[in-house]
Amino acid sequence: MSVGLAISRQTKGLIRKLAVKNAFDYGSARENPILAKVLSREPGLKAEMKSLRTEIERIVAEVNALPRPDLEREYGSHAAEFESEQEEKAERSARHNFSVEGAEVGKFVTRFPPEPGGYMHIGHSKPLFIEDALRQAYDGKLMLYFDDTNPDNERQEFVDAFKRDLEWLGVAFDGEYYASDSIPLLYGHAGSMIKKGMAYVCTCSSEKIKEGRAEGKGCEHKEQDPGQNLKLWSEMLGEEHGDGGAVLRLNSNMSALNTVMRDPTLFRTKRARHYRQGDKYHVWPTYDFCTPVIDSIRGITDVLRSKEYELRDELYFAVLGALGLRKPRITSFSRLEIANNITSKRKIRQMIADKLVQGYSDPRLVTISALRRRGITANAIREFALSFGMGKSESVADLAALLNLNKKIIEPIARHLSFIDDPVPVHVANAEGIELSLRLNPYQDIGYRRYMLNGHFFINASDSKRLKKGDTVRFKDAFSVAVISVGDGVEAECVGSGSGNMVVVPWIAESGAVRCELLHIGNLMEGERFNDRSITRTHGYAEGYASSLVGGEIVKFERKGFFRLDGKADMSFISV
Questions:
Q1: For the CA atoms of 288, 289, 294, 300, what is the dihedral angle to 10 degrees?
Q2: Distance (Å, whole) CA 113 – CA 176
Q3: Spatial CA neighbour of 521 closest among 391, 361, 298, 389
Q4: Is the separation of the CB atoms in 472 and 498 below 8 Å?
Q5: Cβ(519)–Cβ(566) below 8 Å
Q6: Angle between the 156-169 and 378-386 helix axes, to the nearest 10 degrees?
Q7: Are 557 and 419 in contact (CB under 8 A)?
Q8: Sign of the dihedral defined by the CA atoms of residues 9, 14, 19, 24, in that order
Q9: Are 290 and 317 in contact (CB under 8 A)?
Q10: Distance CA 284, CA 274 (A)
Q11: What number of other Cβ atoms are within 10 A of residue 522's Cβ?
């Protein structure tokens, strides 16, 4: 598909306007911030990502080639609009308290730091969207940083899954890097700390180290001189130790009130093959060492993370202080937790192994891929995550809030269809040859479904049980029928449009009815226990139009709610 066909004239105008502002403010326009802003306004363009990137590159090149007087004139033509947008952005940031004390416009750089040991989940969305909001508020940069220094659990599959989910969520990054690519540099900094007497090699068992921390007592290795530690460090980097055979520890204060500071581990030996580095390394830094060092050397000005790390802030700054490196700001906020669900990578891996859930995209989970499969929109996830702001008050969110927010977004675009789960045949004697044209959505004009009727229908058994000879009811959105007899089926006749407060009965034409399965998703957990009824199933028939749906489309079934077509082959739908 050509760029001209994929990208509308209106979108090209938006790209041009954003490029002009970016170039005016910073001397030259940058592609990634423009991409992020375009996707935040027009999320549907994620399906045209390749064409969109190409068009942005073209327009950015044009704008950057403009002489300064021409750029100023074009900027002036949009000045009032830019001022209004800036005021709106300031109001939005203030409403959610999206600000960082001391941050400056144009001098803000942060990062989103996932560990690729599992799939992205709803808990990741809060820091991600806060970082993105602050990046926009301060016209700064947002980097993608993979914290990948644990070869036991990390895989390329998880890196790819994160990238796929992040693109779907509409967040573009200003750069990407991996902790494992900086191992030689991190080794150098570790050597510097050893020489200064600020780190030592310990070969105690993990149990003994844990016991010493609890008692506030150091082991015999703490008293080793730097020369001896350098020799032991060299042995660690060689082939002297197997998994966990030796660790490098910070030489700190074993009686510190903050137990995090009781000689924490900075490096450990792990022999597992690394998904990215192969067998190149077997001594790996911990998060507490590599993250502050990489943040500092990569120019990160602001670290935004959940307050569960607050006790580790002291260690973060201690490492940088020992190495004489620049210290970023840290801003903490409460993490996003979902009631009756789990986000722990370890627990999800175990549930998959135990076959309690069918992979990371199982619709009962709150991974981003699972929520996407369930029909939750990226905009709903963004608004849900940002609604909690940057406060530190702990709370456990109910997934129902996200589902309700999502329903407001999909209601105007969902096709409304009838579904019969306990069918009873109805023959309407004089309905043969009637042609019906029914709206697909009662609120928006998104088209019609049309049927040529032959007099044979299905209604729900629960409705047929209430019928008796002589009753007149209305077939929803169609016509009224008078009941002639009720037995194994219903005999009736069409009596026109009818009037008064009749009972309204959902129906489908028997001809062309589509056999379907509805999967109803409930809470994954009941407290600490797995919920055996987290998925229930309903079998029945949808009206014939359902056969024209494509995988991924969302419908609202009468009396059943919103569902997303998950499998076209077996016509299985998942509740939204």
A1: 40
A2: 10
A3: 361
A4: yes
A5: yes
A6: 90
A7: yes
A8: positive
A9: no
A10: 10
A11: 13
pLDDT digits (tens, 9 = 90+) for 402-426: 999 999 999 988 999 999 999 999 9
Q: At 486, is the secondary structure helix, strand, or coil?
A: strand
Q: Do the Cβ atoms of 89 and 121 come closer than 8 Å?
A: no
**Average of per-residue pLDDT values in the chain:** 92
Q: Provide the phi-psi class of 512: left if phi over 0, else alpha when psi is between -120 and 50, else beta.
A: left
CATH for 425-436+454-509 is: 2.40.240
Angstrom distances, CA of residue 15 to CA of 52, 133, 169, 172: 10, 19, 19, 15
Length of the chain: 576
pLDDT at 459: 97
Residues sharing a CB contact under 8 Å with residue 45, sequence separation 6 or more, in sequence order? 7, 11, 38, 39, 52
Instruction: Name the packing angle between helices 183-195 and 226-237 (round to 10°).
Output: 160
Predicted confidence (pLDDT) per residue in 68-121, tens digit: 888 888 988 888 787 776 665 555 544 566 899 999 999 999 999 999 999 999
Domain boundaries, the chain: 1-77, 181-291, 425-436+454-509
CATH superfamily of 181-291: HUPs (3.40.50.620)
pLDDT tens for each residue of 309-368: 999 999 999 999 999 999 999 999 999 999 999 999 999 999 999 999 999 999 999 999
| Rg of the chain on CA atoms, in Å | 30
Higher pLDDT, 148 or 39: 148
**pLDDT tens, residue by residue, 161-179:** 999 999 999 999 999 999 9
User: Bridge-partner residues for 452, per DSSP?
Assistant: 435
3-class state of residue 417 by DSSP: strand
Whole-angstrom distance, CA of residue 165 vs CA of residue 493? 53
Q: Give CA–CA dist 254/217, Å, rounded.
A: 6
Contact 276, 180 (CB under 8 A): yes
